[in-house]
Amino acid sequence: MHALALIALFLVTLAGMEGFAYVMHRWVMHGPGWVLHASHHRPRTGFFEANDLYFLIFAAPSILLLLGGVQLGWGDWATAVGAGIAAYGAIYLGFHDIIVHQRVAHRYVPRGRYMKRIVQAHRLHHVVETREGNVSFGFLVAPAPETLKRQLAGLRAGIRAPTGPDQPPAR
To answer: How many Cα atoms occupy the beta-carbon half-sphere of 144 within 13 Å?
Structure first.
């Protein structure tokens, strides 16, 4: 394949992964896959949680495509698609696990409009502790926080109690 076609295939795969992530999060993780994902909606008690197994599950196709493209002669298309999936995984890891959930200590504070929007959208997703009644299932593309707050106001089931110094203790 021509180099520009491979770059385009990589970029299309990278962009398409957001749609795939939305579908998997909305209808698998908050559906039959809740058995693993529920750990992500509760306070973490250690460094790892059952939800981390999804990292391995979603990395498998990327690894297979990269292996096939580089070592098994499947073609450059497989390498480009595998690399696009891996790139989305790396971006997701950086935004989701490091920036939003701070699983690695850092001092970064989102200041730009885009970063503030995706961080706040994900935090609003986490105010619901149950698998139903959630908002914002994508990650790199997120609705405006005001929209999500209106949606949450209409749901009210399974919403986590407010915490903080000005709130009464949870019962």
So the answer is: 3
Distance CA 46, CA 103 (A): 10
Handedness of CA 83, 89, 93, 94 (dihedral sign): positive
Cα–Cα distance between 21 and 136 in angstroms, integer?
12
Q: Residues 10, 87: contact at Cβ < 8 Å? A: yes
Block residue for tokens 């709130």: 167
Confidence band, pLDDT 50/70/90 cuts, at residue 156: low
Please tell me the pTM assigned to this model: 0.86
Angle at 138 between CA 80 and CA 15, to 5 degrees: 25
Using DSSP, state whether 128 is helix, strand or coil. Answer: strand
